[in-house]
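Input record, target 12 of the design panel.
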């Protein structure tokens, strides 16, 4: 495949649907099927890792991050589109250096080590208790008397899917300037960046988008 062919394909994919429709009609539908199937087989580690990694991805689109996604994108998305109870989980210990402890425990450690990790808080360790059932449903997102953070995986998925609907509605309104750009502009730029080929200069790749957008403008003006 020639580079121009790849660029043209990526641009067609980028513009295939309006941002909010891509989020609702593509990602929400497919991710729902995947997460429901994983919950059926009680894949508790996989559920949390996928949910939080997808939050990081969506956060990069929300922020318009054209570089590598990171914890800051995750925090921004969680704070903006999840229920308020989740925000407090960025810091569940008294450690001064903590940034987002829920991210480190349930996203970073699972993807890189295969399981969550406890986190030291003075002389104690905050652990985790994940799964299903009435107890975890009642104590979802709470630290119990044993020092474990409780996560009900079905409620986590429900809250995540609800957040996607909120994000799609935000994109459809297309109001709210961040980094001097509208939501749809940030989405297009950040999503385009994800198509950047390995070993390709990122600045060069982003310039391809500017060039293609200008070509479309010229074509439309001539047609009008």
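The sequence produced for target 12 reads:
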């Amino acid at each position: 495949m020639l580079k121009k062919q790849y660029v043209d394909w990526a641009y067609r994919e980028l513009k295939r649907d309006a941002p909010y429709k891509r989020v609702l009609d593509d990602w929400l539908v497919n991710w729902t099927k995947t997460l429901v199937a994983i919950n059926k087989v009680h894949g508790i580690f996989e559920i949390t890792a996928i949910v939080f990694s997808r939050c990081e991805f969506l956060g990069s689109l929300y922020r318009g991050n054209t570089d590598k996604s990171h914890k800051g994108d995750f925090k921004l998305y969680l704070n903006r589109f999840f229920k308020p109870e989740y925000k407090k989980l960025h810091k569940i210990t008294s450690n001064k250096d903590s940034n987002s402890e829920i991210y480190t425990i349930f996203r970073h450690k699972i993807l890189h080590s295969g399981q969550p990790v406890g986190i030291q808080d003075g002389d104690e360790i905050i652990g985790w208790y994940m799964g299903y059932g009435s107890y975890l449903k009642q104590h979802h997102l709470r630290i119990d008397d044993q020092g474990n953070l409780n996560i009900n995986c079905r409620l986590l998925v429900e809250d995540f899917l609800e957040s996607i609907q909120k994000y799609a509605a935000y994109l459809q309104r297309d109001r709210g300037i961040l980094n001097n750009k509208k939501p749809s502009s940030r989405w297009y730029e950040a999503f385009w960046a994800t198509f950047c080929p390995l070993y390709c200069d990122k600045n060069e790749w982003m310039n391809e988008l500017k060039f293609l957008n200008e070509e479309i403008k010229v074509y439309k003006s001539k047609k009008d």
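DSSP finds nine helices and three strands in the chain.
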